[in-house]
Specification:
alpha/beta; 12% strand; globular; binds zinc ion
Length: 114
């Protein structure tokens, strides 16, 4: 998972808060579907102050540093903002934006596989 968390830069939350949200997300995902997330990569920075904030691609590159076998060209990005789509497309990924036409992750998976 790659996520912008500008609230850290703005003082609205701490890195620990972000970690706790991710831990809870993992718990809920496991409990509700048996799924898991291999890793979380987040940008805690403010606008225009780093290369990791999407639409920058730094978070994706961090993931490929951890797992060099990731083939970004064979990967997909599902997000809810234009920045998500831009970041995914910049790396040659298929990118889907959630919204009126693709309501949720299940619909995104259908669109990717369909
Ligand atoms: Zn950043």
């Amino acid at each position: 998972m790659v996520t912008n968390q500008r609230g850290v830069a703005l003082g609205r939350m701490t890195d620990g808060d972000v970690d706790r949200v991710h831990e809870r997300l993992s718990e809920l995902l496991a409990a509700q579907s048996g799924g898991h997330i291999d890793g979380y990569f987040y940008c805690p920075h403010d606008l225009d102050s780093c290369s990791c904030r999407k639409p920058g691609v730094g978070l994706f590159l961090q993931a490929t540093e951890r797992w060099p076998d990731i083939d970004l060209g064979a990967s997909a990005m599902v997000g809810d903002s234009p920045a998500d789509v831009l970041a995914g497309e910049a790396l040659g990924m298929r990118a889907i934006r959630l919204g009126p036409h693709v309501a949720d992750l299940a619909a995104a998976v259908d669109a990717l596989l369909g």
